[in-house]
Amino acid sequence: MNDFNSLNNLSTDLMHLFENASLADVELKCESFTIPVHKFILAARSPVFSEMFKNEMTESRKKTVDITDIGFSVLRTMLVYIYTGRINDLTMSNAQDLLYAAHKYQLTSLKNICSEYLKNNMNDQNVLKLLEFGNCFDQNLKDFAMSFIYNKADFSILEKTQEWQRFRKEQTELAMEVVSLIRNKNLNI
Description:
mainly alpha, elongated
């Protein structure tokens, strides 16, 4: 059996463990749902869960962890990734939500997958939103968005949009970075 088949079988077996909650020793509560999980798998994959379970935090004494800042479907998708290393059905919306969750739980590989998906789907209509998002959660995404604005976006059109007006008011420093970038580009012509 080659390495790929072994890893694929391991991934499938761990998904079975997750789906059947065999030997689960903690529950994650999110919205009105409860998901039984395994501390050792979460701790092995996420430094945040590792610290949570090995220290004398409330979660290590209780058998429940309340997840309040991500939605159930994002949590479930993140858990499938933690157990299997697989991610399916990314969309612009859930890739952003997953990137936030991956950032929070320090899941670097998942963060990179989400960031690559967002970069591959960047366009003139979503570049400011992704720039803002990257500024908060992923420097690589921010840098890519800045490069996109510099190389591909038509700033004369972008600056006339309501999105730019909102962006300028809510993200003043970041908007100044964009303006400076465009000014430097125009001076180099």
